[in-house]
Amino acid sequence: MNDFKWSGAEKQVAKRAFNAALEREYGKLMHQTREMVARMQEGTHLWRLHDFLTDKRRKIDEKYDYRYSQLIFVFARLIHEGWLSLEELEGLHEDKLSKIETILSLARE
Amino acid sequence: MNDFKWSGAEKQVAKRAFNAALEREYGKLMHQTREMVARMQEGTHLWRLHDFLTDKRRKIDEKYDYRYSQLIFVFARLIHEGWLSLEELEGLHEDKLSKIETILSLARE
């Protein structure tokens, strides 16, 4: 995947899609955090929230890797997990889109 | 401090005071957490909350050390920080109370 070239226009599409997915994950995470805090009744529940955030932060840091060498995999994963739609990647060159679709079809097998 | 003997009655007083201070710290921490969550507007604020909880958890774990060899220091610190009053330790032997008072007076110097 390292040999893909990203044009300026493609980089814009990629950045917008990447950020949109991340915002959706953050939105869900903020909702879950608010729910946990609303149900919080005793001190040790603070550490349950802390463990939850530690886990989510590690996973999001690992998943949202904006290196161009990784973006095809990142986008395939985000679509597979439902954080992004293929339509939001419109504007990427056909070679990239077909690679993402290939990865997706393999993931669905 | 290792040579202090703790009677059963003293252990009860110690446990109750220890837990009372911890509950107060938890209460303040839950209040701060609720405030941070109420002000949370974007995803990265989640990590600000996470950093806050990481720091507090580490400090509380370190501070609330219920080994009898440490309790005199722990109580002096909790009183110094305002989480506990000397009156709540009524029932401990005079040797322990005076040691705590000595530590407190040194801390105030």
Describe the structure.
2 copies of one chain form a homodimer. With about 110 residues, chain A is mainly α. Chain A has helices at about 10-40, 45-65, 70-80, 95-109. Chain A is elongated, with a radius of gyration of 17 Å. The mean pLDDT of chain A is about 95. The interface of A and B includes residues 27, 30, 37, 42 and 56 of A.
Q: Give the end-to-end Cα distance of chain A, rounded to a whole number of Å.
A: 22 Å
Tell me the greatest interface: A-B, 23 and 23 residues
Largest sheet descriptor of chain A? none
Q: How much beta of chain A, percentage-wise?
A: under 5%
Shape of chain A: elongated
Q: Name the helicity range of chain A.
A: over 70%
> Which structural category do the helix and sheet elements of chain A fall into?
mainly alpha
Average pLDDT metric of chain A: 95
SSE run of chain A: HHHH
CA-based gyration radius of chain A:
17 Å
Question: Could you give the count of β-strands of chain A?
Answer: 0
Unreliable residue runs of chain A: none
Q: Quickly count the helices of chain A.
A: 4
Oligomer: homodimer
